Amino acid sequence: MNLKHGIPEPWATALTDAGFISPWDTPSMNRLSEATGIHVSTISRIIKGQNLKGPTHDVIATLAKALGKPAKELGKWAGAAWAELEPYSPPAVSALLTKEQRASVDMIIRAFATSNKAAQQDADRAVVIAAQIATKGPSHRAQSKKTT
Prior knowledge:
Residues 32-74 form the HTH cro/C1-type domain. 53% of the residues lie in helices and 3% in strands. It has 148 residues and is mostly helical.
């Protein structure tokens, strides 16, 4: 395994290219964590191939967006079985539903879509805020002068 500062490729290069750099100019999982809201230990397990359950679609999509890479590509890096979501088309048997049943199914789909959209907007805001924080660089605490 090719490692760059303890992070395997292609992850290390992706972190660097996306600007997730530590104060020591090395790829930073901590900065990615700050940008995405995904705990750094989760990111570490995914990057190092130690995530036994496999990453969820939402986690991979959030990481992909932050790194500026296609989710399918990150899914491959993480060793995740990955399938791009295709537009929904109801099964052929849906023709048997009544008008009221179709309206109910439509309401359920809209509720899921609204929830997913809100979650994605939250993730997008977190990425923007973290990027703003990352561009400010490390903070230095002001040292108080002790008077005697």
